[in-house]
Design goal:
- The protein is mainly α.
- It has a domain of 128 residues.
- It is elongated.
- The two termini are 46 Å apart.
- It is found in: Cell junction, Adherens junction; Cell membrane; Cytoplasm; Membrane.
- Pfam families: Tetraspanin (PF00335).
- It is a multi-pass membrane protein.
- InterPro entries: Tetraspanin/Peripherin (IPR018499), Tetraspanin_animals (IPR000301), Tetraspanin_EC2_sf (IPR008952).
């Protein structure tokens, strides 16, 4: 019985933790959506808030089934939890295999997605903050190089562009000194007109796609460890769900056998009553 309780509450704790995380993701996503301008057109591929809501909702549903299935010993909920988690696990493994086998295609799709995000840079505040964070974190600018920002209507170099940022780059592309406390938000103005050797004195000229790939290769153990840890945790949760389900079925079968045995004895007593003193 102690072993069963250990399985039950371990599964519940795991599911409850991810249930809380999913609720936080949904709350953050909804807050970001409400805070946005109403005329912004959202798409799943380039909208962080919408992505948070969808991922959080899927996690919330899966972990809800696991939490209440484990706590209430409901085999139906546990089976649903197991099936959905198994499907998610298979999709994750399949995505990894496809990404490894078709690297060129994945890179091409990723580049198009990042370029699409650059085009919508000023239209979505969440997306703008995400791009600024990536460019600051990885010390990069654009997708392939800093001149990719000419694809954005605010930063293109056309003579008809009335924007003050025309032929420039965002301030997140700028090289900031360690002791610099006040950041010049106009440091990227006109940098696309400069040659690479001159521009690199003030801004990062390498693209973010190359920098992210370089970071991933240099931190392959960290990335692989986190991925393997997540997959291993999913496998553990599936095994716990299987163990609890089988234990519940075993207990139910024993209970049914006891009831059947009790009914059989009662039937025998009824058909063959005892007669005291009769030999």
């Amino acid at each position: 019985m102690r072993g069963y309780r250990g399985i039950k509450y371990t599964l519940f704790i795991f599911c409850y933790f991810f249930w809380v995380v999913s609720a936080v993701l949904i709350a953050v996503g909804i807050y970001a959506k409400i805070a946005k301008e109403k005329d912004v057109v959202d798409t799943l591929t380039v909208d962080p808030a919408l992505l948070l809501i969808i991922v959080g909702s899927v996690m919330f549903l899966i972990t809800f089934l696991g939490c209440f299935g484990a706590l209430r010993n409901a085999t139906c909920l546990l089976k649903m939890f197991l099936v959905i988690l198994a499907v998610v696990f298979i999709l994750q493994v399949a995505a990894g295999v496809v990404g490894y086998l078709f690297t060129d295609m994945v890179m091409e799709r990723t580049e198009k997605l990042m370029m699409k995000a650059i085009v919508r840079y000023r239209e979505d505040r969440d997306l703008e903050n995400a791009i600024d964070f990536v460019q600051k974190k990885f010390q990069c600018c654009g997708v392939e190089n800093y001149k990719d920002w000419s694809q954005n209507p605010y930063f293109n170099c056309l003579d008809t562009n009335p924007s003050l940022e025309a032929c420039g780059v965002p301030f997140s592309c700028c090289i900031h000194l360690k002791n610099q406390t006040v950041h010049n938000t106009m440091c990227g103005y006109g940098k696309q007109m400069q040659k690479k050797d001159l521009a690199r004195e003030n801004i990062y000229t390498l693209g973010c796609l190359e920098k992210i790939l370089w970071w991933t290769k240099n931190n392959l153990r960290l990335v692989g460890g986190l991925t393997a840890g997540l997959l291993l945790l999913e496998v553990c949760m599936m095994l716990l769900a299987i163990a609890q389900t089988s234990w519940i079925k075993k207990v139910q079968k024993k209970t049914e056998d006891k009831r059947a045995g009790r009914k059989s004895r009662e039937k025998d007593i009824f058909e063959f009553p005892d007669f005291p003193g009769f030999e």
